[in-house]
Write a structure and sequence with these properties.
Blueprint lengths: L24 E3 H13 L3 E5 L2 E6 L2 E6 L8 E4 L1 H17 L1 H14 L15
Antiparallel strand pairs: 1-5, 2-3, 3-4, 4-5
Length: 124
């Protein structure tokens, strides 16, 4: 059986890509590596009563959530949404190793008594 494949030249320059809505909530297992990513980018991290704040100059990012209740996802403010987009693009390029490296860097920065905390081990 002969299969004839027509040469249907696709002009990719004329195709308009679908622009998905930005991710507005961060999955729980990515909060720790994302925090390390933010710290690597020069942001200072500080706990807030309703989540975590990341500050660098005039920019402030925030992940909103409770310290006492673990959730599957946490809301982010607009600045964190933009930084998370960059984070996910690097994740797609670097794969699982990108997350593993950030997690390892984060654990190395923690005091020894906090390195075995179960809330930090939810790596994707």
């Amino acid at each position: 059986m002969n299969v004839i494949i027509e040469d249907a030249a696709i002009n990719y320059c004329k195709i308009k890509p679908e622009v998905p809505q930005p991710v507005k909530r961060i999955p729980d297992p990515l909060v720790f590596p994302f925090s390390v990513f933010m710290q690597n980018g020069g942001y200072s991290i500080s706990p807030a009563k309703d989540g975590v704040s990341f500050k660098k100059g005039k920019y402030t990012g925030k992940i909103k959530g409770s310290w006492s209740v673990r959730a599957d996802f946490y809301e982010m403010n607009e600045h964190c949404i933009n930084r998370f987009k960059m984070f996910t693009e690097l994740y797609l390029k670097g794969g699982k190793k990108f997350i593993e490296d950030l997690t390892q860097q984060g654990f190395a920065r923690l005091p020894p008594h906090m390195r075995d905390q179960t809330f930090l081990t939810g790596v994707v």
